[in-house]
Amino acid sequence: MSREAILRRIRNALGEPPRNPRSRETTPPAPASLMSTGAASVARFIAEAEAKGVTLLTVREPRHIPGAVARYLTGLGGPAPRVRIADLGWPDVPWADAGIEIATGAAAPDDIVGISRGLAGIAETGTVLLVSSPGNPTTLAFLPEVHIVVLEQAAVAGTFEEATAILRATFSPGTLPRSVNLISGASRTGDIGGRIVHGAHGPRRLAVILVENKQGAVEAP
Amino acid sequence: MQPRAGLFVTCLVDLVRPSVGFAAARLIEAAGCDVIVPQMQTCCGQPAYNSGDRKTSRTLALQTIRAFAGCDYVVAPSGSCAAMLKIHYPKLFADAKPGIRAQVADFSSRVHELCEFLADVKKLRHLPGRFNGRVAYHDSCSGLRELKIQSAPRRLLALVPGVELAEMAEPEACCGFGGLFAERYPGISAAIVSRKVDDAARTKADLLLAGDLGCLMNMAGKLAREGRPIACRHIAEVLAGEMADPPIAQGQNISTTAGACKT
Amino acid sequence: MIPSTSTFPRNAEEALVDNRLQAALATLPGGLVAQRRAAVAKVPEFEALRDLGREIRDHTLQNLDGYLKAFEKKATAAGSTIHWAGDAADARLIVHEICRAAGASLVVKGKSMVTEEIGLNAHLIENGIEVVESDLGEYIIQKRGEAPSHIIAPAIHLTQDDVEKDFRTYHTHLPASRLLPDAESLVAEARAVMREKFLTAEVGITGANFLVAETGSSIIVTNEGNGDLTQTLPPVHIVVATIDKVVPTLDDAMVLLRLLARSATGQDMTAYTTLATGPRREGDRDGPRACHVVLIDNGRTDMLAGPLRDALRCIRCGACMNHCPVYNAIGGHAYGSVYPGPIGSVLTPALLGISETAHLPSASTFCGSCEAVCPVKIPLVTLMRTWRERAWSGRLTSRTGRLVHALWGYAATRPRLYHLLARFAAAGGGALGRRRGAFRRLPIARGWLSARDMPAPQGRTFQQLWQETQRGVPR
User: Are C462 and B43 an interchain contact pair (Cβ–Cβ within 8 Å)?
Assistant: First the structure.
């Protein structure tokens, strides 16, 4: 059955004349119990993410990121792995100083650590919002064993509605990059006897580094 | 002059357990109403309605409505019958002429389930019944989900001296009766009622109560088949002190007076 | 899958004595049911969200053609190719053709109920293409040759031991002496096996929880991340979705996502919620090179015209079946259909016809638990009753049942006759049953009596006794 036939069947079934689609203004605000602003938002984001097993680290400035990563990976044990990083948006982040060997580009299947750039955080559920771009490949979030997201603290929003507003502000109307990922914890499954196990297909661990970055602004993606 | 409350007997109470009808009448009188029992009532029509036979349902609906003309209230000791009269009769006539729709709407507005009537409409504060013992209360699905009746039965039980209410883990879980379902799909129904009676047994209650005789016959029948001691009665029997008859599915030669009126 | 709805009574009987299944079902109350309750309790506005979700879905369905066209426009602008399939056969042909053109020998799949509905896997396999389900639960049952038993947790009927046995049987490339002591080791093994498939498949097929008209995106929701690997690694991505999956805007999608995860598993968000919009963009380092979206009707337009339209609001959360006493007693396979539980009892007759499926809406107590938890307030009981009405007027119910019903109806609409007959029944039943208070055996009501006793009447009818009291006769 062709496109026209299906559309015609729909129109016949509905009967009434077509109505105008709702405009964006008719969407109600988020439920009050899910809202938060400012410092309370950041606190809620951290609490919700930690409740989902995410490790939260906070650094004052971008130049402290490698140190935080190194400490986190040391804590996990094992030899220091090579780290595949996205374009995090700051120049001169001193990875070598922290003894971290970096690579860029899409993730390779045997990568142990991938570091992505977060566009926003959503405090409502402790979710990080990632968007794909040449400098932020999606596979960094799925192929490695350990996924780290670097996020500016100022980019933590309260609710999903604020997050969609950020997407609309960042991209032309009605367009999105190839992949927009809302990530709320590491990969897990309950499919075997109802027990929750991590690392089903995606990363076993997720960490978020919040960058307070009171001084510099982050370049646009 | 006292209001006239028509008692919707329900077909199960009429046939199987009239003492529930007498208990309901006693309570309605205690609430300050004259009790009328129209003779031209038989069944609310649920068996036809839930079988998909709208035609017979409508005939029974009109028969019922006519029978209760002149009553200020229509009170039913059954959540499922009350829901049928109150919620589903208007649906049966949604496509009818405005005159009929108005008549049905007027009737339905006067319909109340017994506990809701006593507790919320008449705000009865003193009950004739007495019972020393532990009871568990099963929320029948229609009463609970269609008529939103949950606290009224419990508030009434709290007014009966001597009653200790012990809640089941899942008082809202279906008992598996479902009208003809219990006959058509007996294995599934049995599995559901097993779960319910296990839950009831764990409360160690002396009495298992509900507001629907269908649920009660199902649960009592299962308990009797398994030889378990917990007795089943309609909540009206406890509230009204109508406890002389044996509990449901228990005979007159049962030597223990489990569930009989204790004072 | 091949439906077996017409043998529902036998399916149910087998399920009731399947101890392994019963043990798995016993985990539902403390599991998915309790989890949903806890999640909903945290959001005082949940009722309002349900109303909003219902309104969004109603509005979309009322304007379905407009939103589908809007979705098509945006998705095409993003580089996707949109296909329209009238029925299951059309859809299978379209997907197969895309796979053939891509030279596919291996397809990986994210979880998708509609691909079960259209029998896609079998069709591709018949045509020489290997198909591997990437969702762990789906992978397990695919290996077993079973259909999913639940729309969210397809392997809920299996235990850890079952899975270990299966992995040892099917993963013959791994050393037989390996230890698989726990769920972690089984998951690790599945991860490694699937990884290789993700990396070598030519085509990845996913369903869509939602299609967003505003941006031309498809949304998938997983905890494993398997859907993301499926739609990112292979060079060709195919989205398969029924036409009722479209939602107008990103904000609408967010409202529905709030409802979906909580209703399904009690999470406020699954680990991965992803919006995919077309193939990789210029400069992207990963992502598919080609994206296709197959929009499927397969009976949905028929449902749009009448009362069944409400069932199209479904967002596939599975809450209805988690809370259904019948589903809890027999599990999903007994329904014999891709969609089990209450939503299955409403949808399956629409897809397969009521004459083959009349048992499904019939086998319900109408307790209403499903409606009470449906995030988009589908009137499931009313819709099941609607099917019962169609079965009734189609004379699909048993002859004996109709005869008994006719006799009962004749009497019930003639109160004097009815009361006379009731007096006889009460007297007879009372006399026979007074001593024990209940019957173990009767020539009627065999089904009831197979499992429980029948309480005996007290001996007189209420009408009879009441009239005596009115005449002054003491009780």
Answer: no
B248 in a structural domain: no
Whether residue B103 is found in the same domain as residue B137: no
Contacts of A106 in chain C (CB under 8 A): 285-286
Instruction: Name the A residues in 167-206 with CB < 8 Å from any C CB.
Output: 167-168, 174-195, 197, 199-203
For chain C, the chains sharing at least 3 beta-carbon pairs closer than 8 angstroms are: A, B
Q: Which of C62, C136, C284 sits opposite A19 (nearest CB)?
A: C62
Alpha-helical regions (H) of B2-97: 11-16, 18-30, 46-49, 54-67, 79-83, 89-92
pLDDT at A147 over 50: yes
Structural domain includes residue B254: no
Q: Classify the C-alpha dihedral B255-B256-B259-B263 as positive or negative.
A: positive
pLDDT-based confidence at residue B258 (cuts at 50, 70, 90): very low
Q: Give the pairing of strands A205-211 and A55-59.
A: parallel
**Tokens coding A106:** 């899409």
User: pLDDT, tens digit, for every residue of B1-13?
Assistant: 899 999 999 999 9
- Tell me whether residues C137 and A191 touch, CB distance under 8 A: yes
E strands, chain A, are 55-59, 83-85, 102-103, 113-117, 120-122, 127-131, 146-152, 156-157, 179-183, 188-192, 195-198, 205-211
pTM reported for the whole predicted model: 0.95
* Chain B / chain C CB contacts < 8 angstroms: 219
Residue B263, pLDDT above cutoff 80: no
Which pLDDT score is estimated for C38? 96
Q: Which pLDDT band holds residue A161 (cuts at 50, 70, 90)?
A: very high
pLDDT, tens digit (0-9, with 9 covering 90-100), for A165-221: 999 999 999 999 999 999 999 999 988 877 888 988 999 999 999 999 866 555 545
- Mean predicted confidence (pLDDT) in C383-397: 95
Q: Give the pLDDT score at A214.
A: 67
What is the reported pLDDT for B256?
A: 42
| C423 contacts chain B (CB < 8 A) | no
Note whether B71 and B151 are same-domain residues.
no
Number of domains in chain B: 2
Radius of gyration, CA atoms only, chain A:
20
* Domains present along chain C, CATH in parentheses: 43-301 (3.40.50.10420), 400-470 (no CATH)
Interatomic CA distance for residues C320 and C377, integer angstroms: 11
With CB atoms and an 8 Å threshold, state whether A178 touches C287: yes
Q: Which residues of A touch C198 (CB under 8 A)?
A: 201
d(CA C215, CA C293) in angstroms, rounded, equals 14
pLDDT for position B261: 40
- Substitution target from B57, B60, B174 for chain C, most C beta carbons within 10 A: B174
Rounded to an integer, what distance in angstroms lies between the CA atom of residue C409 and that of residue C412? 5
* Chain B contact present for C13, CB below 8 A: yes
